[in-house]
Amino acid sequence: MTDSVPKRSGLNSLFQPRAKGVLLVSLALLIIAVVAVPWPLQPSAPTTRRFTMVSRQFEFEPNTIQVNQGDTVIITLTADDVVHGFFLDGYGVKMRVEPGQSQTVQFVADKSGKFRYRCSVSCGTMHPFMLGELVVGPNTTFGRAVALIGVVAIGVTVYLWKFPLREPGESTTEVRSKK
Amino acid sequence: MIDQSERLAIIALVLILIGLPIAIFGYQYGLRPALAGVRTIDIIAAAPEDGGFQPDAIEVQKGETVRLRFSVPDVTHGVAIAGLGVDLGHIDPGQVKEVEVTFDQPGKVTFYCNAWCSPNHWRMRGTITIIDPADPDAHRRIEAAPDPVIESLIEREMDIDAPHDAAISPNEPVSAAEGGPLVENYRADLPVDFFDPLWLQRQSPAEAFSVLKETLPNLTDAQRWNIIAHLWTDSLAESELTWAQTEYIKNCAACHGETGNGDGPAAAAINAQLATTAMNNDKVASFAPASPTMGATTEIYYAKLRRGGMGTSMPGFGDIFDTEETWRLAHYIWRLTFAPAKPSPQ
Ligand SMILES: [Cu+2]
Ligand SMILES: [Cu+2]
């Protein structure tokens, strides 16, 4: 720790007292970028994804489907026992199926996020629990979280390395003068 | 002694206790029907396990107009009345649908569920008997009339339920579309029978194939099958085809499958019982171009449709479709066999 003082004073203007502000601001910008800038990586170009889904008392199979934003989604729904419905929150996609007569809807998954689909025709006691989920990715939340932690960790390390807290006099004046 | 105000209170109480029910029931059962002018019959439509239609036997007078009001407690049902062109469509739980019908002819009509609602869905039927006060036996006479086609089958000792495996069936895809031009080309060489609707409906494709093999030795087997496919699918006009398609989907596809392959959602359960019962013919029929379909005839289809299977899961539709409609469905089955609808382009 003691030898970090001469190191700092020996560096160029980037780490001069004024540079502390520059470091903080650029760190903040980096964090904002990681959190808010649209993820540049699209795992694949938009394609058409087809799903064959079965509805029965009281479930959808599959009950989770995942697509990428921009994909064209085609769902063919069949019913196994009684008449069921399908309503996709957020997209407003709606259909009704009867055993023996499959139904198909097509839409473009242009909104990202998680969307519930539910049975929209009362089909028995457990009907309210007949649910499923459409996940429109790419799932950037995890990637962003990792990147955020990384950026913050590096930022804190650099900050502490260059402006150690061990010199109270100097750092407090710095902070005060900033304010 | 009761004083004045107490007496008033008692009178008011008695008026409420007696008057209110009288007013309510009087309105419901007296005033309202009187104002409406027609008899309203409330029918609960529940899955067969839970009682089916309640009531399921209704009597009306000839010429009477009634309002049938259907409500549904469990799952979605559909209601149609055979022969009257009434189809109320789906009725969801909590929904009420009604229809006003005037019955002009003595006889019996069947109302039935036309949305698959349970493994016993097809049992969900009810009857309306129309009685002619001037001729109280009229409806019974009409009911008892035998079906001439089934009579004729019995006369010829044809067993509707006999297995009809075919000795020969196509081993490559058949095209009714390619059969059309072939029939035109060989019109002069084809036996005259091939243009006789009665002969056609009594022949199986396999039998007709054998005839073709002798009369047109120069053709390939594929060409012969294409000719048969064309002749067996040529009899329905466009509007009849649409009708049959809709009715097939509503009434048959749950068992026989959307494309007729015998793989509807209800088929698995029926076929699963095969192993556990003595019945070995209760396997949902597939209409794919193979045996035993190649050994079937249109008139056998007709008879099976009208009468139903003998102890099998195949319901009888004689009360639901009239003879002409039954022929249409019987012919439509050959469409499923030989000219399946192209999957709609996506
Ligand atoms: Cu439901
Ligand atoms: Cu039903």
What features would you highlight for this structure?
heterodimer; A: 179 residues; alpha+beta; five-stranded mixed β-sheet; four-stranded mixed β-sheet; 4 helices; 30% strand; B: alpha+beta; Immunoglobulin-like; 12 helices; 15% strand; binds copper (II) ion
Describe the structure.
The complex is a heterodimer of chains A (179) and B (346). Chain A is of the alpha+beta class and 179 residues long. Chain A has four helices and nine strands. Chain A folds into two domains: 17-43 and 140-162; 48-137, Sandwich (Immunoglobulin-like). Chain A has helices spanning 4-9, 19-36, 140-162, 168-178, and strands at 48-56, 59-61, 64-68, 72-79, 84-88, 93-97, 103-108, 113-118, 131-137. In chain A, strands 3-9-8-5-6 form a five-stranded mixed sheet, with no helix packed on it. In chain A, a hairpin with a 4-residue loop joins strand 5 (84-88) and strand 6 (93-97). In chain A, helix 2 runs antiparallel to helix 3. The mean pLDDT of chain A is 81. Chain B has 346 residues and is of the alpha+beta class. Chain B folds into two domains: 39-132, Sandwich (Immunoglobulin-like); 150-337, no CATH class. Chain B is built from twelve helices and nine strands. In chain B, the strands form two sheets. A five-stranded mixed sheet of chain B has the order 3-9-8-5-6. In chain B, strands 2-1-4-7 form a four-stranded mixed sheet, with no helix packed on it. Chain B is elongated. The complex binds copper (II) ion (2 copies). Residues 84, 119, 121-123, 127, 130 of chain A line the site of one copper (II) ion.
Secondary-structure topology with pairs:
The complex is a heterodimer of chains A (179) and B (346).
Chain A: H1 4-9, H2 19-36, E1 48-56, E2 59-61, E3 64-68, E4 72-79, E5 84-88, E6 93-97, E7 103-108, E8 113-118, E9 131-137, H3 140-162, H4 168-178
Parallel strand pairs in A: 1-4, 3-9
Antiparallel strand pairs in A: 1-2, 4-7, 5-6, 5-8, 8-9
Helix pairs in contact in A: 2-3
Chain B: H1 4-36, E1 39-45, E2 53-54, E3 57-61, E4 65-71, E5 77-81, E6 86-91, E7 96-102, E8 107-113, E9 125-131, H2 138-144, H3 148-155, H4 176-185, H5 197-202, H6 205-215, H7 221-233, H8 238-251, H9 253-256, H10 267-272, H11 298-307, H12 323-338
Parallel strand pairs in B: 1-4, 3-9
Antiparallel strand pairs in B: 1-2, 4-7, 5-6, 5-8, 8-9
Helix pairs in contact in B: 4-7, 6-7, 7-12, 8-12, 11-12
Bound molecules: copper (II) ion (CU) (2 copies).
Residues 77, 113, 115-117, 121, 124 of chain B line the site of one copper (II) ion.
